[in-house]
């Protein structure tokens, strides 16, 4: 059946976006003393290497999240710096967030530290870890905190942070699974 659907879509000139099995296992975001703390765990049906390769390559960021409008990465001496811009609208209020981060890579993780001069944040850090769950399934764990240069209203701000955070990670994780599997398919073909 899948083969038939793929052939029909190729003949008709349309593309099929496969459903993903990406799943958010846990997510939490809080605001205390002006600092946003967040964490989430997700599972995706893709190999850990493919997942980490997509996460660690800045070129994929706009494909993982439609709100990321630009992304660059540069090496300065022994440091790797990633810069990206996120544009998001909530109700009728739109805002731009600039991120400039120093990245440190290890075998299955990335540690990121905000560079305040080029960011919309005074400070921040996060750690992304990928771990094989079984066969072709990977767990992604992220913990972090951000101290924004803008004010977030205590009650309604936390509500919107939670809503946007969960929407964004759901979209990003589903796209990450698709992109990681596309990379694997291309690698097998060549």
What does this structure look like?
The protein has helices at 2-12, 48-55, 61-64, 154-189, and strands at residues 23-32, 35-44, 68-76, 79-90, 93-105, 109-114, 121-134, 137-148. With 190 residues, it is of the alpha+beta class. An 8-stranded antiparallel β-sheet has the order 1-2-8-7-6-5-4-3. Helix 2 packs across helix 4. The longest helix is centred in the C-terminal third of the chain and has 36 residues, at 154-189. The protein is globular, with a radius of gyration of 18 Å. The model is unreliable at 1-18 (pLDDT under 50).
Keywords:
about 30% helix; about 45% strand; alpha+beta; 8 strands; disordered N terminus
Secondary structure tally: strands? 8
Helix tally equals: 4
Query: Which assembly state applies to the chains in this document?
Result: single chain
Question: SSE order, as H and E?
Answer: HEEHHEEEEEEH
Any low-confidence stretches, pLDDT <50, length ≥5? Answer: 1-18
Assess the beta-strand content as a share of residues: over 45%
The whole-number mean of residue pLDDT values reads 85
How are the strands of the largest sheet arranged?
1-2-8-7-6-5-4-3
Overall spatial form: globular
- How does the major sheet shape up? 8 strands, antiparallel
First-last Cα distance: 26 Å
User: What structural class do you assign from the helix and strand content?
Assistant: alpha+beta
Helical fraction equals 25-40%
């Amino acid at each position: 059946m899948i083969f038939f659907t793929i052939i029909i879509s190729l003949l008709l000139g349309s593309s099929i976006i496969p459903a993903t099995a990406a799943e958010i296992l846990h997510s939490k975001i809080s605001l205390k003393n002006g600092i946003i703390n967040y964490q989430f765990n997700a599972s995706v049906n893709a190999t850990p290497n493919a997942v980490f390769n997509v996460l660690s390559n800045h070129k994929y960021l706009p494909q993982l999240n439609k709100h990321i409008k630009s992304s660059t990465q540069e090496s300065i001496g022994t440091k790797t710096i990633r810069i990206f811009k996120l544009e998001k609208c909530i109700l009728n209020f739109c805002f731009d967030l600039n991120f400039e981060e120093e990245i440190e890579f290890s075998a299955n993780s990335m540690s990121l530290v905000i560079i305040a001069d080029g960011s919309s944040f005074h400070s921040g850090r996060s750690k992304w870890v990928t771990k094989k769950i079984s066969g072709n399934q990977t767990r992604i764990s992220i913990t972090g905190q951000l101290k924004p240069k803008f004010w977030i209203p205590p009650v309604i701000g936390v509500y919107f942070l939670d809503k946007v955070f969960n929407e964004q990670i759901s979209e990003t994780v589903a796209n990450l699974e698709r992109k990681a599997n596309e990379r694997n398919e291309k690698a097998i073909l060549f």
